[in-house]
Amino acid sequence: MVEATIVLPVFILLLVGVLYVRDQALTSHAVELTARTCAWQYSVTNCDLVPPGCEGLVTAGTSHNGASQAVMDALRGGESGALKQADKTGVVSKIVESLLGPVLEAAFGRSLDATAKRDLERPQLLGGDLDPVKKMTGHYHLACNLTPESPIDVAKDAWKLFKP
User: Fold this and answer.
1) Which one of 3, 9, 147, 149 has the minimum C-beta count within 10 Å?
2) How far apart (Å, rounded) are the C-alpha atoms in residues 92 and 161?
3) Domain region containing 52
4) Is residue 155 a part of any domain in this protein?
């Protein structure tokens, strides 16, 4: 009986600790899943439409970091660039830019951030009196998808630039 009186509080403390760690792992997984789900759903719509239930969780990240513009500038090469030498009217450079622009924007361009937060109550046996709530945060960063275009749409857009 004496042993049980000594060991029982330790077992209770261990049980509460194990249950709290389990709740903490489940909550952490849930907020990560929520952030990931909202990010993918928002990305599928080309970052135009916030999915239901994700209001306030998803924010637009960066518009573009200038890398796509730097690549296009390097391709143009200023006055002595390859496109300027071959294309005196500027039509070919407009077509190349319209074809490569979306690809470069996809590779280096827009992105989004999704952040989900949830509070987890801390048991009193584990310091819940001092800090009653543990804030759990899930974060996910993803690039925005492009709007799907068929080869016919790309050809029509290129033709419109060629023939004004």
Assistant:
1) 3
2) 9
3) 2-63+110-162
4) yes
